[in-house]
Write a structure and sequence with these properties.
Its cofactor is Mg(2+). The protein has helices spanning 3-6, 33-45, 52-61, 65-83, 89-95, 108-120, 134-161, 172-176, 178-199, 206-229, 233-236, 239-264, 269-296, 299-302, 308-311, 317-325, 329-335, 340-352, 355-375, 383-399, and strands at residues 165-166, 169-170. Mean pLDDT is 81; it is low at 1-51, 58-63, 124-131 and 300-304. With 404 residues, the chain is mostly helical. Strand 1 (165-166) and strand 2 (169-170) form a beta hairpin. It is globular and about 60 Å long. Strands 1-2 form a two-stranded antiparallel sheet. Helix 3 (52-61) crosses helix 20 and helix 16 (317-325) crosses helix 19. The chain has a single domain, classed as Orthogonal Bundle (Farnesyl Diphosphate Synthase), CATH 1.10.600.
């Protein structure tokens, strides 16, 4: 359903710092994530006399940005495990199913949000070493809230789809039953919004705007799922309908959460819109690649069954593009895929078409639009800001090259 749902955490977004280690102060990889972030901000704040071009080059070469936030992401994972404790032991077990060590996934959504916060915020420019930056803490809480909503969507998705696997293991509904799975999802959603009400408040009252953005994302998720369930034969053949549904199901949460980061930062409406556009196009690009992998990947690499969409009667971009080349495929698509022979026929048309290639090109277009949104952010010479922006741009490039 969501971007973070499948998007793998990308390590090594920038070059290793080892090539320049001799010229740097103590290596930030040897300190905690928070201290590393503070070190980075101090270091680059002291070099602001350099030109923007020089700053951009340093951002590409000096530090792996994930080394600066990995401890924050780890802290988020630990906090999430402690947050999903319920009064009923069975509910605690169910709610914590995807937060267990080894089952938590790649935590991509928190990673993207923290990098976005670093990309648009100047609050860490003059940090007090050893203290906790208040707004950075609110960014982390927002990342936790978004992850709670994300996992809720996974659980409810699996119930609706009767899925047996998730992330390469048995789905929660398969292990504990549909009723408990639904209740676990509801419990996580309540935790998300209660945390938002308490943890995101500030003197400017930004928490109300953030909660409204998160509520919009949840509404979009429900709308997208309904669009998929109640699709008509004509809508099944529409690329516009497919892309709108994909936005709701896959990109709405990350786009609205990126915008919420900008709201928390007190940024302008223009910056908030650019943050939103980044999340939107990143999410759509991710879904398009996911559509390709559903046809070309294996169950082992995907952590779920391959060809799962078409066997559920879901028509995605590769088939829609193939239908443009072979209009006779439209009759099969309108009939649906309850008949196995229709599945075989659709796959045969897809194999002869450029459906996969055209889907990959469309994904690249959306990835470029996401990167363009980062390039359009207000100019900065702060190295830590440039590092995070480069990381977000590199993520769009690596996204369209992923194989699982």
């Amino acid at each position: 359903m969501l971007l973070p749902r499948r998007l793998p955490l990308l390590a090594g977004l920038l070059r290793s710092a080892s090539s320049v280690a001799s010229s740097l102060p103590p290596n930030p990889k040897n300190v905690s994530g928070r201290e590393g972030f503070l070190w980075s901000s101090w270091y680059f704040h002291s070099t602001r006399h350099q030109t923007s071009r020089e700053g951009e080059q340093m951002a590409k070469e000096l530090l792996d940005p994930l080394a600066l936030i990995k401890d924050e992401v780890s802290e988020i994972s630990n906090r999430l495990r402690s947050m999903v404790v319920a009064e009923v032991p069975e509910l605690t077990l169910a709610a914590g199913y995807f937060f267990r060590a080894g089952a938590e996934g790649k935590r991509t959504c928190p990673t993207v949000l923290l990098l976005m916060a670093s990309s648009i915020s100047m609050d860490m420019a003059d940090p007090i070493v050893g203290s906790k930056n208040e707004i950075r803490e609110r960014y982390m809480r927002l990342a936790e809230i978004t992850e709670l909503i994300h996992v809720t969507s996974l659980i409810h998705d699996d119930v609706l789809d009767d899925a047996n696997t998730r992330r390469g293991m048995d789905s929660l509904n398969c292990v504990m039953g549909k009723k408990l799975a639904v209740l676990a999802g509801d419990f996580l959603l309540s935790k998300a919004f209660s945390t938002a009400a308490v943890s995101l408040d500030n003197a400017e009252g930004h928490n109300i705007k953030v909660i409204l953005l998160l509520a919009t994302a949840v509404n979009n998720l429900v709308t997208g799922e309904f669009m998929q369930m109640r699709i008509t034969p004509i809508q099944r053949c529409s690329m516009d309908y497919y892309l709108q549904k994909s936005y709701y199901k896959t990109a709405a949460l990350i786009s609205n959460s990126c915008k919420a980061v900008a709201v928390l930062a007190g940024q302008t409406a223009e910056v908030a819109t650019l943050a939103y556009q980044y999340g939107k196009h990143l999410g759509i690009a991710y879904q398009l690649i996911d559509d390709i992998l559903d046809f070309t990947g294996t169950s082992a690499s995907l952590g779920k069954g391959s060809l799962s969409d078409i066997h559920q009667g879901i028509v995605t971009a590769p088939i829609l593009f193939a239908m443009e080349e072979y209009p006779q495929l439209r009759v099969i698509v309108e009939q649906g895929f309850d008949d196995p022979s229709n599945v075989d026929a659709a796959l045969a048309y897809l194999a002869r078409s450029k459906g996969i290639e055209r889907t990959r090109l469309l994904a690249a277009e959306h990835a470029k639009l996401a990167a363009d949104a980062i390039d359009a952010l207000p100019e900065s010479k702060d190295g830590s800001v440039l590092i995070s922006r480069q990381a977000l741009k590199d993520l769009t490039e690596k996204l369209i090259k992923r194989t699982k």
